[in-house]
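Anyone else keep sequences and structure tokens together like this?

Example one:
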Amino acid sequence: MDAESRAAPDVLAVDWRGHPCRRRHGGMRAAVFILGVQAFQIITLASVGSNLITYVFGELHFPLSQAANVVTNIVGTAFLISLLGGFLSDSYLGCFWTLLTFGVVELSGLVLLSIEANLSRFKSAPCNMLTMEGSCEQARGTKATIFFLALYLIALGNGCVMPNMTAYGADQFAGTGTAAESKRLSTYFNVSYFVYCVAEIVALTAVIWAQMHFGMGIGFGVSAATMAIALISLVSGAMLYRNKPPKGSIFTPIARVFVAALTKRNKQICPASSPNPFNPGASDAMPIDGTFRHANKFRFLDNACIGPVPSGPAAALEDTVKRPCTMFEVQQAKILLAVLPIFACTIITNTALAQLQTFSVQQGYAMDTRLVSSSSFHVPPASLQSIPYAILLLLVPAYEVLLVPLMRRVTGQRSGITPLQRIGVGLFIVSLSMVSAAIVERRRRHAAVDDGKMLSIMWLVPQFLVFGVSEMFTNVGLMEFFYKEASAGMQAFLTALFYSSFSFGFFLSSLLVTLVNRITAHGGGKGWLGDNNLNNDRLDLFYWTLAVLSGLNFFCYLFCARWYNSGGGGSDAEKEIPEGLRNVERA
């Protein structure tokens, strides 16, 4: 046995047999298999979700605004379920078994969707939804039931897989609590996003091309095959992974904190930054050294640690609510409350993303899809969503190799700029994407209605390009922020908050579409987005509305980020992570 294998085991993680991990476990060698899972999983999700509106509108004959809401509701549900996936992983199953179990669930939904799209008995009669020529009856009955059952199986499986891919990959580098670990984590999140971009490009070009040329049924079958490959990649690296054992329900101790704080609200506050004189053993779970930035926030929760520790034969019968909470439990509750405003400020960004996956695709169908005027090659409108990811293949490595070292010298931060600063840059840029979308749509509509001309589909490139730059800052920053801020046992759940932001963004999109149609419908009209023909709609005004909301959201974020950074441990200087706070590094 070599010296590396004889090194001290990692007591915070175990291998596939349940034994403490050693140095041969984890690292990039293990993360490669998880990156493989991520790549094929993203190909699966993107190839289904990005062109789904075409299938719902063109094949199932749903009206345009309703088809857009079907897509955003399904995608929103998948991202919302990510909270369930994070909870199950942290509390009961662990990342590996959560990924494997719900990966199989997602695969079953994809197989069912492929069967539904390929069987002739479930296919709708030909129909031109723009002119309503042909049999344009909306899909109902068994056809609709099977379709939605398949979609929600995919949503359930995908929702539980997504947060655990990111958390499980980061787990392969966590455990030392050193400055080098923080740098490796930051690099891993950039590599992970690079892989994400490559997978998106493959899905939005090759798979979308297959869907357009061979039919959606074949395209869905390809998606099922890529999901099967993802599961094979996951199992292949089983003997190399570092696995963090589940610690039981993460909500039970947090709920105890709120209940205890409520019942002891009239007692003298026990500061979370100092030991509890009534419960001296309460701080053992997490040493307190004054670096916890939220110590002076949510002070009402500090009362939860007050009270004597029950002892003797009757202790087991003591009501658990009356037991004093540990400092660690109080800090968990404070962290969860503190990150919520940051989480809320990212929702509107994903509302903008929902438009690029729905209405912007339909814009493409109303434009000249030839690559150049003399070309016979037509650009599939859904493939426009690959543009930001193609640009990001250049920007992400440039960010890691050029910008990070430069900013590291300027700011002194190990990651160049903090995750909160990175998120702020992205939130500002997303409003510019919606401004670009509004200007282009106004020009497209004017050319079509007044001049009878079709603009080139390449006019849509700027809005996708600008949004891609925004994603590089917002998404990577948010993933890193949630993982680093999570206390022990909460990594997968807080990572799931990142994905649930997509959920609320897509649900907000559905709500805005419905509200805008109702508010702008005058005298029995259809409203800005009420017609199947975009030439009769006012999508440009809807984009301007989102641009204004994005701008207001940015200023709200500045206030929330400033508040988050305030507190007892909120100095700008980078500090080495204490042993007990190794996963609560500053953002």
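And example two:
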Amino acid sequence: MDVEYLSACDTVALLHRGSWVSVSGYRNMGLLREELLKSIWHAFTALDVDQSGKVSKSQLKVLSHNLCTVMKVPHDPMALEEHFKDDDEGPVSNQGYMPYLNRFILDKVRDNFDVLEFNNVCWTLCFKKNVNMSHLLISNEDAFKIWCIFNFLSEDRYPLVVVREEIEYFFRKLTEAMGGVWNQESFDDYKVMLNKKLQSLSAWGLIELVGMGHFSKGMTRQTLAMGIAEVFQELILDVLRQGYMMKKGHKRKNWTERWFVLRPNSISYYVSEDLTDKKGDILLDHNCCVESLPDKDGKKCLFLVKCTGKSFEISASDKKRKQEWIQAIQTCIQLLRLGLQSPHCEARMRRRELRQRQQAEQEELVERMGLLQTANENKQRMLESMRKKLDEAAAKAALEEQRRTQTQSDLQDRYRRDLEREKMVRLQMEQQVAQKSSELEQYLQRVRELEDMYHRLEDALEDERQARQDEETMRKLQARLLEEESAKRAELEQIHLQQQRAISQTQAEKQQLESERLVKETALQAAMLQLENLEKERHGALEQYEMVTKKLEQAANKTKSWKDKVAKHEGLVHLIQPGSKGPQRMTNWGPAAFTDAELDLRKKCWQEQKSHNQSTQ
């Protein structure tokens, strides 16, 4: 047996036997205040019945007295009244109680009190108000242990909550302690449900989650209680490892079985696992070391723990446990040399630092996104302002052009009317020149005035022409801006056309492949038809061959019957006569039976018969 499970009742019993956990063995003094404040916050919240954030002074007096008693701090009943003498007669808030708590209680705390008893007092004040144990699978002692674990894993901000990563860490440890297999998918589903709420749990939510057995399906109540006890011992009691091993005595040199308990700064050994009879401690410091020893004296799996002025020889049950104990002790010594805390405290700090870095990176990313969004909006506003200015300039140019055209038309009409009027006056003066010679000078004066007016009109036209040139210059500037905008638009349209061409090319290639497939299918169908025709022709040739064979057999039969009839009726036998004198055809078997002329004749007859049969068919 390597690990021993203690229930809350066993823990309380051990308190009366003197085996309680002191402050020096529980946490360093730097973290002790934070752990104590978390438990006190639960007690203060429980006293706030109407949830107004304030508690009456009488209740705070009782709470302060209990805290001083359990932490062995001298209690001054007048200090509370003296501290709050300037306040009104109403209740006191948590912020108002905190300075008194730090000054008159926590600053006086020493390492001579039991932290578990302190937590039990705070738990007694708050659990009945917040937990209904009737429908849960765990006992009150198990709920108390989960509450202590919550205080250890919770964030250092109020109200106290435990985040998703710490919830997953706790349930992984609990599943491992129960000997089960961690189901990541089930926890991911729970995280999705948790994200819809507050992404964290209170102490009572964590107790209810464990008590409902959502992550311990298939486990008995006893297995769940044993798993909670093992996690509680590791995280709260700093029990890194425990189990039976053999120890060699210093005086008698005999081997005795002891129950060893490894903590960050000591190894305690007892007579049995009930921890009633403690035989001694092995105090660990940075000068200690652990070494593996060879088997001797019939003992196996030996290792040596060297301390200042004293060494301890220990025998484990097997090689695996020996190696695990050596690694665990080396880890404790290394942490002591580095001045660090227990492994799970260091792991908690690393997890918190990782979450803080991730949160900082996320906030930096959000800030960058906000800056990019602001810059984008500014650019959009600038573009919109430029577009409005261009529209206004174009409208103003159109209005100026209209005014210029109207002015030019008015001047032309006026000049035309003046010319017509001048012609009429000149005609009148010519008609009256004979009669009114005295009025000639006036007429000439009128002509000079008209010429002077004409010059002024020309000057006005020249000014108008200059204004028109200036306006033309402004119009060209606007045209250049419009051309730049149209060039950008043309570039975008060119990119769009390139994309369309790529899509069209892809579709054309697809259509070409489809057409090639259709052509191949058509060629295949034609080849199949041709194969069927060839098959039909082959069957026809076979039928013709069979018909010719039958006809040859019939002809052979007829010839045989004819020869038999001739031989029967005539009874004659042909005499062997000499052959032809011409050259004979030679074969592999000797002289041929037919001449070349006879063979040609037979070939011609066979071809005629074949053509006749084909024409008949």
